[in-house]
């Protein structure tokens, strides 16, 4: 009985060790993946965020609202950012949100997702892809749900868009292993006013659990009512840079393609 118990324990330890070893070879041969995403196409992205990322040679994903005046007025800067490896993601043409939900009285009637047809939502998102391709020349990118809203009535509108994107980022929190990620609703951690220690602790947890961690920022140093300080953001970037040999810091589109390749092989 003692021998059997010993063999069981050794088998269990070996299985855990093997699993950890296998996980460590994922995420571009690093312990985890971290994606930095920034929503809404605001001036702060170009003034504060992209210079901070570029100074450390880190890449981010910027989810652009097609109708944002910041695209029109600063198009050359967005194109230059894409040329330096940042992703220009799709955040729909007019950022429609479901105005029928509690606390959504601020949603304008003309951009109330609950009043959209499925065809209108899909066509506006595809038109935004055309606009973004005119800026960066790329065919592959990811989508981010405005306000995290997935449905029009009882219909998941992204079901008609899966062939247009490598994946879609939602707003639900969570760390997930590469086999757990739902590319139709990638989990993330919205950040607004949290200390650098909170964000760095999330990164450390992702390292320990070999998971995907996606950050969702809006303002960084101003520019949005959902704001993170430049200092805390800079501390996070410095931690990532100091540990990039163990952390894959990449755009959402590159990580989504890696996940898709893995999940397809596992089927």
Describe the structure.
- By secondary structure, this protein is an alpha/beta fold.
- The protein has a single domain, classed as TIM Barrel (Alpha-Beta Barrel).
- It has helices at residues 2-24, 26-29, 43-55, 69-73, 75-83, 118-136, 196-209, 230-242, 252-266; strands at residues 32-39, 61-64, 87-90, 143-144, 151-152, 155-156, 168-169, 189-190, 212-217, 219-220, 227-228, 247-249.
- The strands form four sheets. Strands 1, 2, 3, 8, 9 and 12 form a six-stranded parallel sheet that branches.
- Helix 7 (196-209) runs parallel beside helix 8 (230-242).
- The chain is globular and about 45 Å long.
- Residues 5-19 have low confidence and may be disordered.
List the helices and strands and how they pair.
Blueprint: H1 2-24, H2 26-29, E1 32-39, H3 43-55, E2 61-64, H4 69-73, H5 75-83, E3 87-90, H6 118-136, E4 143-144, E5 151-152, E6 155-156, E7 168-169, E8 189-190, H7 196-209, E9 212-217, E10 219-220, E11 227-228, H8 230-242, E12 247-249, H9 252-266
Parallel strand pairs: 1-2, 1-9, 1-12, 2-3, 4-7, 8-9, 10-11
Antiparallel strand pairs: 5-6
Helix pairs in contact: 7-8
């Amino acid at each position: 009985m003692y021998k059997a118990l010993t063999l069981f324990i050794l088998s269990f330890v070996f299985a855990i060790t093997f699993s950890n070893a296998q996980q460590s070879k994922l995420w571009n041969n690093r312990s985890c993946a971290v994606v930095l995403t920034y929503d809404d196409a605001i001036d702060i992205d170009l003034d504060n965020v992209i210079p901070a990322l570029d100074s450390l040679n880190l890449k981010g994903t910027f989810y652009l609202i097609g109708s944002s005046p910041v695209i029109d007025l600063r198009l050359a800067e967005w194109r230059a950012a894409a040329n330096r490896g940042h992703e220009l993601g799709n955040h729909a043409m007019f950022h429609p949100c479901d105005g029928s939900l509690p606390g959504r009285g601020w949603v304008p009637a003309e951009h109330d997702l609950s009043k959209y047809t499925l065809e209108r939502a899909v066509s506006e998102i595809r038109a935004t892809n055309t606009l973004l391709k005119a800026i960066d020349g790329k065919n592959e990118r990811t989508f981010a749900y405005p306000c995290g809203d997935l449905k029009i009535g009882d219909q998941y509108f992204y079901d008609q868009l899966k062939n247009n994107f490598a994946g879609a980022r939602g707003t639900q929190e969570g760390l997930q292993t590469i086999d757990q990620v739902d590319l139709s609703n990638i989990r993330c951690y919205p950040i607004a006013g949290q200390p650098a220690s909170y964000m760095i602790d999330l990164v450390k947890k992702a390292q320990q659990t070999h998971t995907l961690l996606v950050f969702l920022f809006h303002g960084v140093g101003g520019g949005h009512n959902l704001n993170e300080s430049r200092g805390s953001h800079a501390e996070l970037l410095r931690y990532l840079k100091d540990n990039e040999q163990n952390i894959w810091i990449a755009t959402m589109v590159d990580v989504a393609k890696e996940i898709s390749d893995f999940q397809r092989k596992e089927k």
